[in-house]
Write a structure and sequence with these properties.
By secondary structure, the chain is α+β, with helices and mostly antiparallel strands. It has 20 helices and 23 strands. Helix 4 runs parallel beside helix 7 and helix 13 packs across helix 14. 45% of the residues are buried.
C-alpha cells in the first residue's frame, strides 16, 4: 500500500465522491451522442432479442449488405448482456440514445474506481491517476460508445480489484463482488474468460487455493449453462460451430490470422497515444546513458515504423507515437527482470504479464483487425506496470501528466462525437416527398432508417429512384448497374474546425479499424463526411451487350441515310438515353441531330416531339456512350422513335453506332430495315 492512501481510500467519500462526480459530468458531455462504429450492431441485436432471451425467434438480418437468413443473435461473437441492457432502455424510453448512454455511465465509474484501487495497492502512485487512463484519448471515446469493449474493461478491472480485496481482507462481501464482476465479464464478451487465469495466479500466489477454485467454478457455471441452453435450443455453439463466417467466433479468428505486421505497428501507436506523458517521465527517470539509449532507440524505431506515413503528411506525428510506443519494450523488460526475483509481489507481477500477453495475442492473432477498442485491457495492464516501474511522482508532475492525458482524451472524445454526428443523414436537406434509398453503415444506417429512408443492399426487391451514397464512410459495395446511368444531383459536405481528426484515410487515421488508418487520431481539421444524392434510372431496353468488338456498325449516318429506331415502353418515366457512337477512329466535323418523338404505333405518324439535340461530331469519342436527358414522360404503353441525322456528313466525315444481331429487334438506315438491336440504352427515372 502506498503513501497516498490510508486503510481504504477508494471507498471513502473524500476520494470516491470526486471521482464519481467527474466521471458522471464527463458522461453528460456524450449523453446525446449518436451511434457510431458498431453501436448499431448492438442496437439491432437488442431489437431482435426477446425479453425472455431463449424465446428469441430466428429472423432474417441484414449485416453489411448481406442478408443472413434465420439469424439468431446468439450465433454472433458476443454474449447477450449488453444487447439485453440496451433492450431494457429501449423498452422503457423508446428509440432514444440518452437513456442508453446514461445506463452505460456506471461502467466508466466502475473502471476508474477499480483501476484506482489497483494503482493504490500495487504501485507508489496516486490512485487519482486512474482518471488519466480511463479519460485518456483511446479510452474516453470507447466509454461513450454502447459496444461491449468498455463494459468488459470495467467488469475485468472490477473483478480483479475485488479479488485483491478478497485476498487481503478475507471478507466474503468482496468474494461475492468478484463473482458478480467475473460473470459480468463473461456475459459481456468471450474475451472476459481471460479474467480467470488472473484470479487463479493471484489465488495460488496467496495460497488461497480452495477459495480460488470455488470462485472460478461458480463464475463459470452461468456462462456454461447459458451456452448449453443455446446449443440445446438453437444448435449453436459460438466457439466451435461456424453457422456463418460473417459473424461467428471462428470466422473472426480466421480473419484475425492475417495482417500481423500492420496490427503490431498499430499496437505501438495505440500504446504511444495512451501513455506518452508517463512513458516520457519513465525515460527521464532513467540514469546516465540510459536516457540517451532510450531516446535513440525510440527515435530510430519511431522513424522506421512511421515510414509508411510519409505519403500522408502525418509522418512526424506517427514517428512520435511510435517512438513512445517502442519505449514500452524496455519498460516491460525492466518489469520482467523484477518479476524473476522471488518476493511477495511475484504473483501480482505474473498476473499483469499474463493479462498483457493474452490480450496482445488476441489483438495480433485472433482479432480480425487492429482497433483501440480491442486493447483497452492490455493498455490498462501496461499502465499499472509502468506506474509500478516509476519512482513516486511528485504531485505537480502527476497532476501535469494526468491533465495532459485527460485534455487529450477530451479533444479526441469531442472529435469522435462530431464524427458520429456527421453521419446523421436525417439532418440532410433531402427531397422529403421522394423515397430515399441509401448505402452506409454505422450512424448512417441508424439515422437513415430512423428517418424512414430505405437501407439498400444487393438483392433488395425495390425500385430505387434516389440513392444517397456515404462517400468516405463505411458502406457496402454498390452494384454497377445501379449507378451506371445515375446522375448526381446534390452533394452534401460536413466539415469541422476541430483540431483533431479520428477518421481520415488520407492521413492514415482511424480510431475504429486499422485498414482505414493505423493512427488512432491525428491533428488538423477537414471534411468529416460527404454524401452524394443520385437520381437513379431503370433500363427500358434489354441489355444489348458490353463488348462492341463482337458487333457490327450500322453503317455511316449520311444525309440520305438517317438512322431510326422505334421502341414501345412498358414503364413510365423515360427521361434519359445513351447512344454508343463510333467515329471510325478519326476526327469528324459533321453536324449531328438526335430527335426523340412520340409516334402512332400503327401509322408511324409523329404525335409529339419530346426532345431535339444538336451537336458536332467533334465532341464524340470513339466507342463511348453519349448521354441525352429530357423531361420525364408518362411513357407506359407509348411508342417512341429515335432518329439520328447528319445533314452535312460525307463518306470521309461521318459517324456510326454499333448493333448486335438480335433477330427480334429492327432499326432502319434510310428506308432499309435491318435486324439487330442498336447500341442505345433508354432509361426511366423518377
Amino acid at each position: 500500500m502506498n503513501y497516498f492512501i490510508d486503510e481504504d481510500p477508494i471507498l471513502k467519500p473524500s476520494f470516491a465522491l470526486p471521482v464519481l462526480v467527474v466521471c458522471f459530468l464527463v458522461s453528460l458531455i456524450f449523453l446525446t451522442k449518436p451511434p457510431s462504429n458498431d453501436d448499431i450492431v448492438f442496437l439491432e441485436y437488442a431489437q431482435q432479442m426477446a425479453f425472455q432471451p431463449l424465446a428469441t425467434a430466428p429472423q432474417d438480418y441484414v449485416f453489411h449488405g448481406m442478408v443472413l437468413k434465420n439469424f439468431v443473435v446468439f450465433e454472433s461473437t458476443h454474449p447477450p448482456l449488453i444487447p439485453y441492457m440496451i433492450k431494457i432502455a429501449l423498452a422503457l424510453f423508446g428509440n432514444r440514445m440518452w437513456p442508453i448512454h446514461l445506463m452505460f455511465a456506471p461502467f466508466l465509474m466502475l473502471a476508474t474506481l477499480s483501476l484506482a484501487d489497483l494503482i493504490a495497492r500495487k504501485t507508489k502512485q496516486s490512485p487519482y491517476l486512474a482518471l488519466a487512463l480511463t479519460m485518456g484519448p483511446l479510452f474516453l471515446p470507447q466509454a461513450s460508445s454502447i459496444m461491449t469493449d468498455f463494459p468488459l474493461l470495467a467488469f475485468f478491472l472490477g473483478a480483479w480489484a475485488a479479488w485483491e480485496r478478497t485476498l487481503e481482507t478475507d471478507r466474503s462481501q468482496w468474494f461475492w463482488w468478484t463473482l458478480v464482476f467475473s460473470v459480468g465479464a463473461t456475459f459481456t464478451a468471450y474475451q472476459g474468460l481471460a479474467i480467470f487465469p488472473v484470479l487463479l495466479i493471484r489465488g495460488l500466489g496467496e495460497r488461497k487455493i480452495a477459495r480460488t477454485l470455488v470462485l472460478i467454478g461458480l463464475s463459470l457455471v452461468p456462462i456454461a449453462v447459458w451456452l448449453g441452453l443455446v446449443y440445446r435450443i438453437y444448435h449453436l455453439f459460438p466457439f466451435f460451430i461456424e453457422p456463418r463466417p460473417e459473424l461467428s467466433v471462428r470466422g473472426e479468428v480466421l480473419r484475425g490470422m492475417t495482417g500481423v505486421a500492420q496490427k503490431s505497428m498499430a499496437l505501438f501507436l495505440y500504446v504511444g497515444a495512451s501513455l506518452m506523458s508517463f512513458l516520457a517521465v519513465w525515460l527521464w527517470q532513467q540514469r546516465g546513458r540510459a536516457i540517451l539509449y532510450g531516446l535513440g532507440a525510440a527515435a530510430g524505431w519511431g522513424l522506421f515504423l512511421a515510414q509508411r506515413f510519409l505519403e500522408h503528411g502525418s509522418f512526424y506525428w506517427a514517428a512520435c507515437l511510435a517512438g513512445f510506443g517502442v519505449l514500452s519494450v524496455p519498460v516491460l523488460a525492466q518489469f520482467l527482470i523484477n518479476t524473476a526475483q522471488p518476493d511477495e509481489t511475484r504473483s501480482t507481477k505474473l498476473s499483469l504479464m499474463v493479462t498483457l500477453i493474452a490480450f496482445c495475442l488476441f489483438q495480433l492473432v485472433l482479432a480480425p483487425f487492429a482497433s483501440p477498442r480491442y486493447v483497452l485491457i492490455l493498455i490498462a495492464a501496461l499502465y499499472v506496470i509502468l506506474l509500478w516501474n516509476l519512482q513516486t511522482l511528485a504531485k505537480p508532475l502527476a497532476v501535469l501528466c494526468a491533465l495532459f492525458n485527460i485534455g487529450l482524451g477530451l479533444l479526441v472524445g469531442v472529435a469522435e462525437r462530431q464524427y458520429a454526428g456527421a453521419q446523421r443523414i436525417d439532418l440532410l436537406d433531402l427531397p422529403v416527398e421522394q423515397t430515399i434509398h441509401f448505402v452506409g453503415e454505422m450512424g448512417v444506417k441508424y439515422s437513415g432508417e430512423k428517418r424512414g429512408y430505405h437501407y439498400y443492399y444487393e438483392g433488395l426487391n425495390e425500385t430505387v429512384n434516389y440513392l444517397l451514397v456515404a462517400e468516405g464512410l463505411d458502406h457496402t459495395g454498390i452494384p454497377s448497374h445501379l449507378l451506371e446511368a445515375a446522375d448526381p444531383i446534390k452533394r452534401f459536405s460536413v466539415s469541422s474546425s476541430w483540431p483533431v481528426m479520428v477518421d481520415n484515410p488520407e492521413q492514415g487515421t482511424s480510431l475504429y479499424i486499422h485498414p482505414r488508418g493505423l493512427l488512432p487520431f491525428s491533428w488538423g481539421s477537414s471534411e468529416i463526411a460527404s454524401f452524394t444524392l443520385y437520381r437513379c434510372y431503370r433500363p427500358v431496353l434489354p441489355d444489348w451487350g458490353r463488348e462492341p468488338q463482337q458487333f457490327e456498325p450500322v453503317g455511316m449516318i449520311l444525309p440520305e441515310r438517317p438512322f431510326t429506331y422505334e421502341v414501345t415502353c412498358k414503364q413510365d418515366g423515360i427521361s434519359k438515353m445513351d447512344i454508343y457512337f463510333a467515329t471510325f477512329a478519326r476526327q469528324n466535323t459533321c453536324q449531328m441531330l438526335v430527335l426523340v418523338e412520340q409516334i402512332d404505333p400503327l401509322s408511324g405518324e409523329s404525335l409529339a416531339e419530346i426532345a431535339r439535340f444538336h451537336f458536332t461530331a467533334e465532341s464524340l469519342e470513339d466507342n463511348q456512350y453519349r448521354s441525352f436527358s429530357f423531361a420525364s414522360q408518362n411513357s407506359a404503353g407509348k411508342t417512341y422513335r429515335i432518329t439520328i441525322k447528319s445533314p452535312n456528313a460525307e463518306a470521309t466525315n461521318s459517324v456510326t453506332l454499333w448493333s448486335n444481331a438480335a433477330q427480334d429487334e429492327t432499326y432502319a438506315m434510310g428506308t432499309l430495315q435491318q435486324k439487330g438491336q442498336p447500341g442505345i440504352r433508354l432509361w426511366a427515372g423518377p
